[in-house]
């Protein structure tokens, strides 16, 4: 995105491109930008370049270069405001059916601690994240398939409630790539999360697909276990709420006999 943004802005201003190229300064800047991309990406030339990437790959951008490119992209967006729509075009918000409870900064702790028998899978997301919006229909389908009394699905907008992101150690920086984050809570405590975080606070690459979520979080086993809990928990209130049932008659007689 950091590389495509200035290119899209440049293509959007094609009618003025000829006048820009007539200026030596603009022509030299364009040549230098193209030379940087070629030297960094072309394998024969990039092997001797220094890098700060963990995998030691010199033919890819490190975090410093990504920050510089994002800063330059912001400048290009300010200079070409008419092209902002093209560069910020995102998938539409998901508006389909779902069994998901939305938390705020004041309700998330209370809900997780309300019933220790309930297992929660909570997605930490932000509306501005394209990855979160792409994962929204997948997460909604999972909630429709696996939601029950003992297994609930929740979401919290860490872009809006920043203190929640700090409390649960979910970074909202685009450079860390921690959004979205799925956390499994059992007994009110965190059991696991995806993606995992390395020592430098960056997310380990993980694909947010339905198959990966089912496999990594073992949803089939969690669902079967949660259904057993819900059945045992639902029987008691039903028997107590119904007045004249066969089960209540012997209870009344036994009390009289006593």
From TrEMBL:
General function of this protein: Endoplasmic reticulum and mitochondria-associated protein that probably functions as a regulator of cellular redox state and thereby regulates protein post-translational modification, protein folding and mitochondrial activity. Indirectly regulates neuronal proliferation, migration, and organization in the developing brain.
Superkingdom to which the source organism belongs: Eukaryota
Gene Ontology cellular component list: mitochondrial membrane
Subunit structure: Monomer. Homodimer; disulfide-linked. Occurs in both reduced and oxidized monomeric form. Oxidative conditions increase homodimerization. Interacts with CANX. Interacts with ATP2A2.
Entries under CDD domains matching the protein: TMX2 (cd02962)
Composition-biased stretches (Polar residues): 232-248
Encoding gene per record: TMX2
UniProt GO molecular function: disulfide oxidoreductase activity
Domain Thioredoxin per the UniProt entry, residue ranges: 36-231
Protein location: Mitochondrion membrane
Record membrane topology: Single-pass type I membrane protein
Name of the protein this chain belongs to: Thioredoxin-related transmembrane protein 2
InterPro entries: Thioredoxin-like_sf, Thioredoxin_domain, TMX2, TMX2_thioredoxin_dom
Region (Disordered), start-end ranges: 230-258
SUPFAM superfamilies xrefs: Thioredoxin-like (SSF52833)
Keywords: Membrane, Signal, Transmembrane, Transmembrane helix
GO terms for biological process, alphabetical: brain development
PROSITE patterns: THIOREDOXIN_2 (PS51352)
